[in-house]
Design brief:
By secondary structure, the protein is an alpha/beta fold. The chain contains nine helices and 36 strands. The structure holds uridine-diphosphate-N-acetylglucosamine and calcium ion.
């Protein structure tokens, strides 16, 4: 790895064409902002320092990246890429080397920069079928591996516009020489800006030309100026994430429909059905199957766990061979034991459900500690909140909770206890006995409905 490397990330652009109040480089691709992707790439190169040139939305951007080790360089007025780099260079020793990256080019992989780093001076280029809008690479007549100059679209002749090799914007050079060349660059061009790209011709004139390092995968250097381009980057990012999972042996019913907004670790024979969304850190064990339109964030599913359609799981652990859904909502702090089952319209929060226990229908379990082989009947509710505090419900092994039961926490159900259907439990239920709180059923024989009474009155 080359010594003494500094990275400059250009991020002062207003991003007007996004038509958003969020600074452009903070727009997300996958689960991270564009600038976070670029920072991640920069960090992997282990530079001495990373300098971010910012302008528009400065406070928001600094707040967004407050946890990161970066040197902030304010460019109050956008006088061009050359001007932006010049401001950052003022804070870097002349003996260092500098790599310029763009805050709105998030798909670049660190390995694509490796061929750039060994050079003294280099520009990363790529070839585009439609090069419109990009700076064109004019190769050096005597040294074809090098560049004679870069001409911006707005300043290019028709002949130059026909060139399909373009400037990615990513450039490497020595700090001293870059300062020297930039001091000679003027803003005498169609945009009235100081172009960073103008240093390339100055370098060639001094017999120190930039090498062109061509990158075959043009997608990696694509930037986003509009929401349409951002959507295209998102699509490419999603494709990249899915390809990695497919390569790792994950089966998908319809890959295009699967969205990955985070990091997924998957075992063997994992299956993702239509419309699955995975967010944050998701770990899927061997044989895990996720049904259609389920959303999983920051969770771990152990071997053989099955999630049926339209289920939402967030910050939870799902045990071996456990079953979830359809239409289940598993909220943060939940742990489902092995072979447990959570069925439709069940919401579970901060609850441990033991091995082999079941809550198959229409239930709310919150702040509960539930043992093994417990059966929770339909319509059971843990009344965990008194309006001020949350309280815990404990249900010991083997208990049977009849349907439509309310457990008013704090309360405990002993092992192998049975609660009769419709019970409102306000005190602990002893183990291995039936506890029931139910109004005794009666039938009123001479009862008449208001309608019957009315008819009788009319007829009398
Ligand atoms: C630039 C290159 C062009 C290249 C293209 C690749 C120049 C003159 N042109 O053109 O050759 O093909 O990128 O995408 O460099 N920025 C600042 N301060 C400024 C101006 C820009 O920080 O004063 C930042 C922007 O936020 C952006 C980046 O620099 O991240 C590029 O600026 P932009 O205006 O988009 O340059 P292009 O015209 O696309
Ligand atoms: Ca641009």
């Amino acid at each position: 790895m080359p010594e003494n490397l500094h990275v400059i990330i250009l991020a002062a652009g207003a991003g007007t064409r996004m038509r958003s109040s969020v600074p452009k480089v903070m727009q997300p691709v996958g689960h991270k902002s564009m600038i976070q992707h670029v920072l991640g790439t920069a960090q992997q190169l282990n530079p001495d320092a990373i300098h971010v040139v910012y302008g528009h939305g400065g406070d928001q951007l600094r707040e967004h990246l407050q946890a990161e080790q970066v040197n902030w360089v304010l460019q109050a007025r956008q006088n061009g890429t050359g001007h932006a780099v010049e401001l950052a260079l003022a804070e870097i020793p002349d003996t260092a080397r500098v790599l310029v990256l763009y805050g709105d080019v998030p798909l670049l992989l660190p390995e694509s920069l490796q061929p750039v780093l060994p050079h003294d001076r280099a520009v990363l280029t790529t070839t585009l079928e439609n090069p419109t809008g990009y700076g064109r690479i004019i190769r050096h007549p005597d040294q074809p591996a090098c560049i004679a100059r870069i001409v911006e679209e707005k300043d290019a002749s028709d002949e130059e516009k026909a060139i399909t090799e373009v400037n990615s914007g990513i450039l490497l050079a020595g700090v001293g020489e870059l300062k020297h060349w930039l001091s000679a660059v003027s803003d005498n061009n169609s945009q009235g800006e100081k172009y960073l790209t103008d240093v390339v011709a100055l370098a060639a004139n001094e017999q120190r030309p930039f090498t062109a390092v061509a990158l075959a995968d043009a997608q990696q250097v694509a930037g986003a100026n509009t929401m349409a381009q951002l959507a295209a980057l998102e699509k490419a990012w999603q494709q990249r994430q899915r390809d990695q999972l497919l390569q790792a042996g994950v089966r998908m019913a319809n890959p295009e429909s699967v969205m990955i907004r985070g990091t997924v670790t998957a075992g063997r024979d994992v299956f993702l059905d239509q419309g699955v969304i995975l967010e944050g850190e998701v770990v899927l064990g061997d044989g895990v199957s996720i049904g259609p339109y389920s959303v999983l964030s920051d969770c771990q599913l152990e071997n053989g766990a099955t999630v049926h359609s339209h289920s939402i799981i967030e910050q939870a652990r799902i045990g071996r061979q456990a079953q979830v859904g359809p239409f289940a909502r598993i909220r943060p702090g939940t742990e489902l034991g092995q072979h447990s089952k959570v069925g439709n319209f069940v919401e579970i929060k901060k609850t441990r459900l033991g091995a082999g226990s079941k809550a198959s229908h229409l239930t709310y379990l919150g702040d509960a500690i539930i043992g093994n082989k417990v059966n929770i009947g339909a319509g059971t509710i843990t009344c965990n909140y008194d309006g001020v505090n949350k309280h815990t419900t404990v249900i010991e092994d083997g208990a049977f909770i009849g349907s439509d039961t309310q457990l008013v926490a704090p309360v405990r159900v002993g092992a192998n206890a049975t609660l009769g259907a419709g019970t409102t439990l306000t005190r602990d239920a002893p183990p291995a006995q039936l506890t029931i709180s139910r109004v005794k059923q009666r039938t009123i024989a001479d009862w008449r409905s208001p309608m019957q009474k009315k008819n009788e009155q009319e007829n009398s």
